[in-house]
Write a structure and sequence with these properties.
The protein is 64% helix and 10% strand. By secondary structure, it is of the alpha+beta class. It is rod-shaped, with a radius of gyration of 46 Å. It starts with 10 loop residues before the first helix and ends in a 14-residue tail after the last strand. The protein folds into 2 domains: 174 residues, no CATH class; 162 residues, Reverse transcriptase/Diguanylate cyclase domain (Alpha-Beta Plaits), CATH 3.30.70.270.
Amino acid sequence: MARSGSTQVHWVVRLNYRNRSLSFMLLFGVIALHWLDDPPGPLLWVLLVMQLLIYPHIAYQLARRASLMLRAETIVMLLDAGLFGCWVAVLGFPLWISFAMLVSVHINLVAFRGVPGLLSCMAASLTGVLVGMLLADVELRPDSSMQVTLACMVALSLYLLAFSHSAHLRSLSLRDAKEQLRNSQRQLQRKLEEINALQIQLRELAHRDPLTGLYNRRHLDAQLLDNVVNRKADSNLCLLLIDIDHFKRINDEFGHQAGDQVLARLAGLLTSHCRSSDIICRYGGEEFVVLMPEVTIGAAVERADAIRLAFTGLKMRFNNRDLAPTLSVGIAACPLHATSGDRLFECADQALYRAKAAGRNRTVLWSADRLSPTDPSTI
């Protein structure tokens, strides 16, 4: 599958193309210098130009257009090793030229494929040597001039420096990529924390009354059951069911905005008069519920009357008219009056009904034989 655009070319293909082009040009100069004393025929010159000056560009184009670019580039590197082995044999195994050519291809394959790359490169080089010995009348000429020796040193040094520089750039690229990954992970972690916080807020909002900020009926249902089930055997769980007297009249005479303010004032009053362990809920409309775990019945009644009296003492004024709302409270306790959440609420509701029937603005404790206004001093 053909590919276009340098950004789509595998980094190994691009890196090897740069290094191959540079090292092959340097080797061309070294071999040309080596041939000055004993020039070969035109065929070898043509083959040398094709191998060292044209072949790198053809190999790059083939690799970048391959569907599996890294695999294609590995084949090209092995082909480099085979061709260099062939040239080493054709040249007569000059020591420095042979060293420079074979070391460069072996370094390249070891860098990208490790020990398997070394072994496959050695096999490819040896195959190239054998092919070169079969195709040419090989004459062993290991010596080379001082100029060629120096040129080989310079060429190999430049290649190693270029290779090291490429490795350095790759290292910087990987470091930047890791830093970007760490930044992305940190951003993702922050996003996850924000999402978790939003989920907690949403869950909290799902259990909160938007007007008063108190818990709603859904939360009460869960907490009532949980508190009844997990109540200590020797402790009470008291439920206060609170209702604003004549609340509909307040809405009709003063408006719903006034009614909302009354509800909000009561919510604030309940919050200030209750313990942190108490659970305060707006049950619906003008009804509020307070769950009081681990409290005596007498203390619960005293707390309910304190709330009722404090609410009665609130000074409220709407539309230049004074408003003095009152409360009725029904109380039931677990396990004295009920042993289940539903029954506990039912008892408190019956007590509240009796408080309203008795004239409102009073606290009534549920009793199996009688429901009447309760004086805390008698508890």
